[in-house]
Structure formats: structure tokens, C-alpha cells
Amino acid sequence: MSASAEMPYFIKPSINLSTEEKHQAYQEAQAGIDANLAGETSPMVKMVTINCLLKTFLPYFYWTGFYLVENGRLVVGPYQGTLGCLYIDFGRGVCGKAAIERKTQIVPNTHALAQGSEHIACDPNSLSEIVVPVFNEKDELIAVFDVDSTLAGSFDEVDQAHLERIMIHFKQSGSVIKTLL
């Protein structure tokens, strides 16, 4: 099945925010995430909650989800949006690069990357992307968190700082993370 350029009826196009609006939206999302995940130990519950609340509060999040580390590659996990890639090899695409380098990747224009190697186009409507590695309490890579936008240049250091802070929930076993920004 190939990706279609027609946006599905149930998916809204992205709306970018100013830096100030981003900080506010992330603070609201963080409060909801912290409140809902207080004492939570299940990584799956954490993933679905984080997906839901970030997609709710950040209107430029077109696709948001986790790819789980399984048998030496990434396997699609909980997500919200159009169909995601089912499997991604380490080193392939933006998600695979984030997994192998163990650092956040920000891509202002995914269409400028070599398709198939530097970027895997699961949905042609996705134009910019951020991918954050997710570690457990032993500092083992357990997943990557992937977010796409239908607009170019949606992601920056503001997104990186907030998303990396949110992913700390996977390094904690059930405690609420207090953050300051």
C-alpha cells in the first residue's frame, strides 16, 4: 500500500505556533502528562498518554508516536495519525538515525532528504520531523518518539528541550517529574 497525498478526513493539517505559544502549550501538556502518569510504571500506558496529550495540546503535531526497539530494529508502537511504517532498521531514515546516534534529530524539510535512506515517507503530507530517543532507567534505548508536521520548519530547540524532558518519564519508575522552564 502506498501513501496518498490526500489528507484523510479525520486528520487536521498542522498549525505552527510562535515560540511563546509553544512554551505555553508544552507547559499545559506537561502538567497533564505529570498528573496522569503520577505513580505509573507501565511503559505502554506512558506512551499512549504522552501521545494523546501532546497531540491534543500541540496543533502542529500531525503524526506522533513511538517506535519500539525490538530484535535490533524499530517496530511501530502506540501512535496517533495516519498509518506509520511498521518496521525501521537502525540507521535508516530519521528514526533509525536517532536510534543509532542516540540523539534527537530535527529535520526542517523531510522532502529535501534522500527518500528511502535518509527519510522514509510513510505519509507524503509530513514535511518536517523531530525524533527523540527514549531511554529506560538503565540508559538503554527502548524506543524513539517521532513527531511529524504538515508544515516545513515546525520543530526547533524549544521542541527538543520539552520533548527530551517529557521522555524522562521512561527513566523513572512511577515518580512524577518536576520540570522548570
Please characterize this protein's 3D structure.
This protein has about 180 residues and is an alpha+beta fold. It has a single domain (about 20-170), classed as 2-Layer Sandwich (Beta-Lactamase). The chain is built from four helices and six strands, in the order H-H-E-E-E-H-E-E-E-H. The protein has helices spanning about 20-35, 45-55, 95-100, 155-165, and strands at about 65-70, 75-80, 85-90, 105, 130-135, 140-150. Strands 3-2-1-6-5-4 form a six-stranded antiparallel β-sheet, with helices on both faces. A hairpin with a 2-residue loop joins strand 1 (about 65-70) and strand 2. Helix 1 packs antiparallel against helix 2 (about 45-55) and helix 1 (about 20-35) packs parallel to helix 4. The longest helix is centred in the first third of the chain and has 19 residues, at about 20-35. It is globular, with a radius of gyration of 15 Å. The N and C termini lie far apart (about 45 Å). Mean pLDDT is about 85; it is low at about 175-180.
